Amino acid sequence: MDLDLTDEQRLLGDTVNGLLEKRYDANTRLQLLSSADGWSRDMWHRYAELGLLGLTFEEQYGGAGMGAGELSVVLESFGRALVLEPVLATVVLGGGLVAAAGSAEQKAELLPGVAAGETLLAFAYTEPGMRWSLTGISTAATPAGNGWTLSGQKSAVFGGDAADRFVVTARTPDGEVGLFLVDGAAGGVRRDAYAMQDGQRGADVLFADAPAVALGEPADALEAIESVLDVAITALCAEAVGAMDRMLWLTVDYLKTRVQFGHPISVFQTLQHRAADMFVSLEQARSMALVARLALGADDVAQRRKTVRAAKLQIDVAARHVAQEAVQLHGGIGMTMEYPVGHYLKRTTVIAKTFADIDALTELVGADGGLLPSG
Amino acid sequence: MELALSKEDRAFAEEMRAFFTSEIPAEIRDRLARGLHPSKADIVASQRILNEHGMAVPHWPLEWGGREWTPLQRHIWSEEMTLAHVPHPLVFNTAMVGPVIATFGSQELKERFLPKTASAEIWWSQGFSEPNAGSDLASLKTSAVRDGDNYIVNGQKTWTTLAQYGDWIFCLVRTDPTVAQQRGISFVLIDMRSPGVTVRPIHLIDGGYEVNEVFFDNVEVPADQLVGEENKGWTYAKFLLGNERTSNAGIGVIKNRIARAKRLGGEVISAEPLLRARLTRLEVETMALEMTVLRVLARESSMPAGTPDPVSSVLKLRGSELQQDAAELLLDILGPAALPFRKERTVPDGFAALDEGAVDAMPTYFNWRKASIYAGSNEVQRQIIAKAILKF
């Protein structure tokens, strides 16, 4: 049993942490939040130089050919620093879908640009009124000449503000959910860009007879999407663990330095025990992030999917606990935009509402006999 | 958690499973699977078989029956035993007094006690807690005063589990009342048939009888039954309690309870989404805790022995809570069938047979409230974690 990071993974983590400690402190991040882009193109190019933007792509497409372990190491560091750049949107989702469903030509056309930091992607699948199911879409794909046109509205598209290309789910004339590539600059594409609640950028995107090409074969793409979501959920789990870790230590530091009634408030047992319970939640979350990572290597798809969702369920619950307590134990300062801890509450809340929420995950994991054996 | 195990570890688990299910009599295992307590005879019979096959004390030194297994292999051994519904070797013998004697006892004590401790020829009881020394164990007052070749022991122990079967009791006693609490405690072995030893039952809220008060009234204890050095008993006690690190999670117990609840509650679970949701959350958290156990085990091999690890307090804290939640779940699945208090499953002719679990579900729920109290209450565990992270 080897649950430790490999030397290479540890080195990768140290490198990313080093970069972020040097160039991504809380004040820098606050400035980025209110900048026009909302994130840093400079950092984006640094990530590209470190190979982070092609981490899991095959080497022939400009990638580093690494796996979920390395991706988790990077995302945990990003979670600790609350990185704003659209790595999940462009690399994990957009790049992941092109790698999973795209033709060899499409991979060769798109992935090297993503890895080099030149191409931004976004995955547009949520629609107004939709909850968590991938199939509840009405965006329609219609054959047109050698390609297709798409019509419909997508909402809450992470990275949708700046994406050069969209990977879009749309219903084909056969009634299947297909994946399509749409150029962000094409006619018939309009964006309503905004910041998400956690400051990451996104957009609603309106497609009106927008020219599109099928990503790979224009066939039912649900399995390809789900398999990319398995990876994306695992990455989010790691990011949430990084954020929770930082919240716990911010809180611990605060309890030890804040003086009231003549003592640091860490002398009060009610606060000590609440900090201890945060630690319990964090460690259980850490374990489940590891479970998800290991599960990605499992052969049984149904088991893998259920286990990855179980991980997100545990981590979402833990993150809600840790984040709410972190703000509470900080008192008023935790409510301010200026102090970091509230930003972690915002990010982990958004994570818990990304792909599937606690209730939906409870349903999914509990279906078909649940997680553990009967007997 | 097959995911995290190597091929060799999985083969080891398979070997354990095969051994437990083929060598331990099915009638003993069936009783445990149906939620009944093992009898004294069940426990002794099971431990004899385990000991004959070198499976009772794998964590002891090699010369006294140990196996030099890794911490992970010992964990697998213990979990597979639970999952096969095999009564564990007496924890007082094999996990508590045995390792203390083997580590700190004289050669004479080792030869006198270790073989019979491994085989359960001696049934040991644990004399630690006192009426006024619970979480604050070091405040214990039972005294041992040297008198020639003997100690004269006076005082009272309590919560002494299964002392009604006890042949011997290992006790923490105060040998020096003049120094700081922890430095005046010794570890002695007392024959429970000695004049002046009285065992009195404590009846618990579940209707069962598993704990006792043990009184010592001028009990003469030969001085050669002192383990190690006088006034070093606190060190030995800490060593003993440190051995419980990962077993307190009780993953096997939780899994067995979940499995049984799912078997008995199939229809209810399909029909009641709120109950299903609770079950799901319990299953997920159990999976998380199992990985936390494995993480602690993986670290144990790389950390110097005795290094405190606050994550082992997470295991006790969440483990006890999940064991309790799992017991409560079965209670909720049974509904009104769990209400009658019955000693036996038999019903008069013409009456419907009882649902499985009807007799034991609510008593187990009541009984298991103990899990967050014993072995360092959960509040003590929170204090240990807080101390580690806040460094006070």
Describe this structure in words.
The complex is a heterodimer of chains A (375) and B (392). Chain A is 50% helix and 16% strand. Chain A has 3 domains: 7-115, Acyl-CoA dehydrogenase/oxidase, N-terminal domain (Butyryl-Coa Dehydrogenase, subunit A, domain 1, Orthogonal Bundle), CATH 1.10.540; 121-214, Butyryl-CoA Dehydrogenase, subunit A, domain 2, CATH 2.40.110.10; 222-366, Butyryl-CoA Dehydrogenase, subunit A, domain 3, CATH 1.20.140.10. Chain A has 11 helices and 9 strands. Chain A is globular. The longest helix of chain A has 36 residues, at 222-257. The model of chain A has no long low-confidence stretch (mean pLDDT 97). In chain A, a hairpin with a 5-residue loop joins β4 (165-171) and β5 (177-183). In chain A, strands 1, 2, 3, 4, 5, 6 and 7 form a 7-stranded mixed beta sheet that branches. Chain A has a two-stranded antiparallel ribbon with strand order 8-9. Chain B is α+β, with helices and mostly antiparallel strands. Chain B folds into 3 domains: 2-89, Butyryl-Coa Dehydrogenase, subunit A, domain 1, CATH 1.10.540.10; 124-231, Butyryl-CoA Dehydrogenase, subunit A, domain 2, CATH 2.40.110; 244-390, Butyryl-CoA Dehydrogenase, subunit A, domain 3 (Up-down Bundle), CATH 1.20.140.10. Chain B has helices spanning 7-23, 26-33, 40-52, 71-83, 91-104, 107-118, 233-242, 251-264, 266-271, 273-300, 310-334, 361-367, 378-390; strands at residues 124-127, 143-147, 150-161, 168-174, 185-191, 197-203, 209-222. In chain B, the strands form 2 sheets. Chain B has a 4-stranded antiparallel beta sheet, with no helix packed on it. A 3-stranded mixed beta sheet of chain B has the order 1-4-5. The model of chain B has no long low-confidence stretch (mean pLDDT 95). The chains are: A alpha+beta (375), B alpha+beta (392). Chains A and B meet through α7, α8, α9 and α11 of A and α8, α10, α11 and α13 of B.
